[in-house]
């Protein structure tokens, strides 16, 4: 029996579609009502839906054997699990953006970066040899440079429309993001055959 | 005053929790004692510089640090292998080799907060110092098997690999690339791995090898399958030496507990040969880990090949029910005037049970209750 943690929301639907294509009995997920844990109707799997950060916690601690979660969340966490497959879902990018006149790379003096992803931002700027101050913002990050809270932002960009509408431009692309299949390290050893079978199935459609 | 809390990442163990941990320690120590491993105890505090020498790269944020009165940096020990390396080079100068040492100690790491990690853990382990033969490897692996048996009779696996299998394929590569590659392979971060391998200046065979390495794990058949991907003759020799070890373990009756993972590449500058990790059903992390570290003690000025392992006990407490060394718990109830008799009786009962006394004046004579 495999315990699978799915990230709630859009990713949950897309993952379900993938599993359906390889003949998993996930229709139960569609009419789950208030049920928190549901059984696959065809395969020995059970699913539960969690928030993205929790998905990582559940998998790291072995409560879930497998999780589906965005690379953005993985990058922001301290990963202690295997990241075995790129599901190609929810594709987007981490970018550095700001107003055209506020280039953080050429600014002389103290640079402040606003972001929902402090770890990603810190790692990126450290690798570039640039010393910055990170300010954590939880929503509407684009406001930061406009209102003068920070010089630039590090955020996820899907289409680029939000940035454009707010007059921000992309200065650099940090890394591509998509949903990943992660596996608990101990489960990988103790439930090897079941996990391998799931991966082989998914490989047919990914 | 309502704020009597304990620091994050620490734990109080009470009553049965403490009993069961203690019993687990006793059971494991008995095993190690019988193998002729002698206990060493080192200070909880060490100079931070000792750890800087031991680990080539220390993540400074991971250790608790203090300043002593002379301005030197102290640290709470992060593991026991480095204090033992220090100990071997300073306290065992003229001792006959090999040394068989064991320990059971609290170790400390500053971990990510609120992730459910423990910052203080009990580490119990052995080190076989001064021997680099296959026999030493086999001895340690056998003890690891027996220790896992003590923990969980059925559901465990001991995964064996050899870090040189990876190192061999990296000859000619920059340290930085090698480190990155090791990380991606060890965490089986496969999407990034294939991207990274493409960027490296290596031939097609090596590319194929590195992409395959995270999948070179499973049963004993992996040792044969791996031969399809090797990029040097030395790697064939390494596979053969693992085979020799696993054959010996099979002969000793451990076949169903052995798995192979050639894509195991933890802590590059510490381990030098065979590495292994034990997993017990119900625990999401490895509970036993070890390997050969032939270069470590040399950093403390004594060149001694060594191998050892340690068990992270606290991770096991929720799933392992240790064998208790008493039969049952009893209460001897006695009225006031029968106290001497009660003590005499309970002394006899204590030979195989835990017996506590309870004064109860409402009864006439002694009553023994099993709880």
Can you give keywords for this protein?
heterodimer, A: 206 residues, alpha/beta, D-Maltodextrin-Binding Protein, domain 2, 2 domains, six-stranded mixed β-sheet, five-stranded mixed β-sheet, 9 helices, 33% helix, elongated, B: 371 residues, alpha+beta, BirA Bifunctional Protein, domain 2, 3 domains, nine-stranded mixed β-sheet, three-stranded antiparallel β-sheet, 11 helices, 15 strands, 34% helix, 22% strand
Question: Secondary-structure blueprint of this entry?
Answer:
The complex is a heterodimer of chains A (206) and B (371).
Chain A: E1 2-7, H1 10-21, H2 27-30, E2 37-39, E3 45-50, H3 52-60, E4 66-70, H4 71-76, E5 82-86, E6 92-98, E7 111-115, H5 118-127, E8 132-136, H6 143-147, E9 152-157, H7 161-165, E10 169-177, E11 179-183, H8 185-190, H9 192-203
Parallel strand pairs in A: 1-3, 1-4, 7-8, 7-9
Antiparallel strand pairs in A: 2-3, 4-11, 5-11, 6-9, 6-10
Chain B: H1 16-34, E1 38-39, E2 45-47, H2 48-54, E3 65-67, E4 73-76, H3 81-91, E5 99-108, E6 120-129, H4 134-151, E7 156-162, H5 163-169, H6 175-186, H7 190-199, H8 204-212, E8 217-218, H9 222-225, H10 233-251, E9 258-261, E10 274-280, E11 288-292, E12 306-312, E13 328-334, H11 339-349, E14 353-359, E15 367-370
Helix content of chain A: 25-40%
Strand order of the largest sheet of chain A: 2-3-1-4-11-5
**Roughly what fraction of the amino acids of chain A lie in strands?**
25-35%
Annotated CATH architecture of the largest domain in chain A: 3-Layer(aba) Sandwich
The total tally of domains of chain A equals 2
Relative helix content of chain B: 25-40%
Number of strands of chain B: 15
Number of domains of chain B: 3
Oligomeric description of these chains: heterodimer
């Amino acid at each position: 029996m495999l315990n699978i943690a799915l990230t709630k929301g859009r990713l949950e639907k897309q993952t379900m579609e993938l599993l359906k294509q390889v003949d998993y009995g996930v229709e139960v997920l569609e009419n789950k009502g208030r049920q928190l844990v549901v059984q696959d109707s065809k395969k020995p799997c059970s699913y539960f839906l969690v928030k993205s950060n929790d998905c990582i916690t559940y998998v790291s601690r072995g409560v879930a054997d497998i999780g589906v979660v965005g690379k953005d969340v993985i990058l922001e966490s301290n990963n202690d699990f295997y990241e075995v497959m790129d599901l190609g879902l929810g594709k987007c990018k981490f970018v550095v953006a700001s107003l055209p006149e506020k280039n953080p790379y050429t600014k002389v003096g103290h640079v402040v970066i606003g972001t929902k992803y402090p770890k990603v931002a810190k790692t990126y700027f450290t690798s570039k040899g640039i010393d910055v101050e990170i300010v954590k913002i939880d929503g509407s990050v684009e406001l930061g440079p406009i209102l003068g809270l920070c010089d630039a932002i590090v955020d996820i960009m899907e289409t680029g429309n939000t940035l454009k509408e707010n007059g921000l431009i992309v200065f650099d692309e940090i890394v591509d993001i998509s949903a990943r299949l992660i596996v608990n390290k101990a489960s990988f050893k103790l439930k090897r055959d079941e996990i391998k079978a799931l991966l082989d199935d998914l490989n047919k459609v990914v | 005053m309502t704020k009597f809390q304990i620091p994050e990442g620490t734990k109080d163990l009470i009553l049965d929790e403490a009993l069961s941990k203690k019993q687990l320690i006793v059971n494991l120590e008995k095993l190690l004692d019988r193998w002729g491993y002698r206990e060493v105890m080192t200070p909880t505090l060490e100079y931070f510089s000792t750890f800087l020498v031991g680990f080539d790269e220390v993540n400074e944020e991971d250790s608790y640090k203090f300043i002593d009165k002379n301005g030197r940096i102290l640290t709470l020990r992060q593991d026991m292998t480095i204090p033992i390396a220090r100990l071997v080079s300073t306290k065992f100068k003229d001792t006959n080799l090999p040394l068989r040492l064991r320990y059971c100690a609290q170790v400390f790491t500053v971990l990510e907060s609120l992730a459910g990690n423990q910052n203080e853990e009990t580490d119990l382990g052995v080190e076989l110092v001064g021997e680099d033969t296959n026999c030493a490897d086999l001895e340690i692996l056998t003890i690891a098997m027996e220790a896992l048996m003590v923990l969980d009779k059925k559901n465990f696996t001991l995964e064996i690999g050899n870090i040189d299998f990876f190192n061999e394929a990296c000859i000619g590569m920059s340290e930085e690339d090698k480190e990155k590659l090791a990380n991606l392979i060890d965490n089986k971060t496969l999407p990034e791995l294939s991207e990274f391998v493409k960027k490296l200046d290596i031939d097609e065979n090596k590319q194929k090898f590195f992409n395959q390495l995270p999948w070179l794990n499973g049963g004993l058949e992996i040792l044969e399958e791996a031969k399809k991907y090797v990029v040097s003759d030395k790697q064939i020799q390494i596979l053969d030496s693992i085979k020799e070890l696993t054959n010996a373990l099979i002969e000793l009756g451990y076949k169903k507990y052995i798995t192979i993972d050639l894509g195991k590449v933890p802590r590059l500058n510490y381990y030098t040969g065979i590495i292994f990790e034990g997993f017990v059903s119900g625990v999401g992390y490895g509970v036993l880990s070890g390997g050969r570290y032939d270069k470590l003690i040399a950093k403390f000025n004594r060149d001694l090949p060594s191998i050892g392992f340690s068990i992270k006990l606290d991770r096991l407490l929720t799933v392992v029910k240790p064998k208790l060394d008493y039969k049952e718990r009893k209460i001897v109830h006695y009225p006031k005037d029968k106290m001497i008799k009660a003590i005499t009786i309970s002394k006899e009962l204590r030979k195989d049970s835990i017996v506590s006394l309870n004064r109860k004046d409402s009864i006439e004579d002694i009553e023994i209750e099993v709880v």
